[in-house]
Amino acid sequence: MINKISIIGGDLRIIKLAEMLIEEGVEIYSYGLEKADVKDMNKCENLQETVEKTDIILGAIPFSSNGKTVNMPFGENQVLVEDLLNSIKGKTLIAGGIKQDVFDSAAEKNITVIDILKREELAVLNAVSTAEGTIKIAIEETLRNLHGSNILVMGFGRVGKILANMLKGLGVNVSCEARKNSDLAWIKAYGYNPIPLTDLKENLGKFDVIINTIPYIILDKDNLEKVKKDVLIIDLASNPGGVDRDAIKELQLKFVWALSLPGKVAPITSAEFIKETLYNIFNEINN
Fold first, then answer.
1. Does residue 140 register a pLDDT over 70?
2. Residues 30-88: pLDDT tens digits?
3. Shortest CA distance to 205 belongs to which of 231, 184, 175?
């Protein structure tokens, strides 16, 4: 079992994770969490001191929003992604939402990189928090009950499946958009209304809420011109998202781009999920 790790940056779920790990006897060294009040966490003076303490470096989830700096909402300074990689040669970096250029740069420096968000166990559990957070937004941002409303879920991956099931339990008239015939068959089998991608445009005007989970733009201006004027559009897809935001502004539609919901709506539960996944990774490293 790993008995000490270094943490560089991260949001509230990383802070809660640090607290849990410390309670279980793991020694934590950190940089980029200066504004966090975590008992018995060793806050280091600089990046180099932090990474020298251990062979396992836990980065932010998501690792970087702009591709240049590590996400550090509780830090007092910024750390360039490249500076972090240069400082951890030969070690292991565990973070989330890691872009390909980071993998490429890390390979040149003999750094083992693990994207924890690609672990199936964490992806499935995070989908639950994302679905709950999405429903919270839908309730807060609309003027009607979700019960009896018409809601479209775009995409039928992990989040789409769990979200559709939760919405159905609330009495929502659920429709799901998908491209694959196999997904459309499952959508029908679950009792939702299946909408093939090819039929999307002609159906968009039926919905009170549209929730996108697909990480490329389908809701372009041409499609957005077909929706209700009072529709609520929620985009769960990571950057660049699945909605043309310029068109949203031009058409004056109500829009919420809801990123990293697990860390915002359920940081303690999310931290527990991350801890379980970390322990699985540690066991694999040791074996």
1. yes
2. 999 999 999 999 999 999 999 999 999 999 999 998 889 999 999 999 999 999 999 99
3. 231
Domain 127-263 sits in which CATH superfamily? NAD(P)-binding Rossmann-like Domain (3.40.50.720)
- Domains 4-118 and 127-263 equal at CATH topology level: yes
Topology at the third CATH level for domain 4-118: Rossmann fold (3.40.50)
Task: Give the span between the Cα atoms of 189 and 187, in whole angstroms.
Answer: 5
| Alpha carbons 97 and 114: distance in angstroms, whole number | 10
Summarised one tens digit per residue, pLDDT across range 183-237 is: 999 999 999 999 999 999 999 999 999 999 999 999 999 999 999 999 999 999 9
Place of tokens 């919420």: 256
In the chain, domain spans: 4-118, 127-263
Residues 6+ apart with CB under 8 A from 215: 237, 238, 241, 242
Reported pTM: 0.82
Q: Which pLDDT does position 58 carry in this prediction?
A: 97
Enumerate long-range contacts of 215-220, CB under 8 Å, 24 or more apart. 215/241, 215/242, 216/240, 216/242, 217/241, 217/242, 217/243, 217/244, 218/154, 218/242, 219/154, 219/243, 219/244, 220/244, 220/247
